[in-house]
Design brief:
By secondary structure, this protein is mainly α. The chain has one domain. The protein contains 13 helices and no strands. The longest helix is centred in the C-terminal third of the chain and has 27 residues. The two termini are 24 Å apart.
Amino acid sequence: MNWIESGLLGIVQGLTEFLPVSSSGHLEIVKAILGDRSIPEESLIFTVVLHFATALSTLVIFRKEVFQIFRGLFQFRWNEETQFSLKIMVSMIPTAFIGLYFEEELESLFGGQILLVGFMLFITALLLLLADKAKDTTKNVTFFNALVVGISQAIAVLPGISRSGATISTSVLLGIDRTKAARFSFLMVVPLIVGKVIKDISGGGISFSSSQTFPLVFGFITAFVAGLIACKWMIALVKRSKLAYFSLYCSIIGLIAIIYSLS
């Protein structure tokens, strides 16, 4: 993979991580189009690095909220900040469980499984369509909501199911305020990505040759910058209830992916 390809993939990741169209699915599609022949483990490493870049862009956009989460954890008082911090932790449980006990199975899905991506994009499209038609409310995230949304995030590890699309749609269908749903969706994934990177580095799970260093760094930078732009854009779109357009887009891309894989 050269630096042009890694930069393109970084832009794709940065934009699609926050837009509800499945970043992992788009990465697999673009890598297949570019003729990437990485083995699943190498493909997953690149995906993790790009996700880490967009996690950092989330930290920049929501730096005040992240500070409140940490402050809530160490205040030892049952206030709104502490409750929000605990809800984030509750939402992490399903995905953490999947990551710990089904890591090898997940790796096998990140190696050009375009047919799977196509079908999963149709599921994303359906979720977005249902959420777009849901009524606006002012409800806050409850602990039960956090667990249900966390289950949606765990299911969204499948390439083709949008993580932000699944979690935001689930939140909206549960009656949560759209802006609060987007905020919770973007914040709940940060600890998981950071934890995944730390786990892989400390356990030797991330390894790459010197020739891969520049493509990885360049991809990281482009994903970070694109993520900053897409995060703000997505929050505005959710407020205006424009998810149906993304539903149509996912359906079209899903159909193209299926036709591509079968041909």
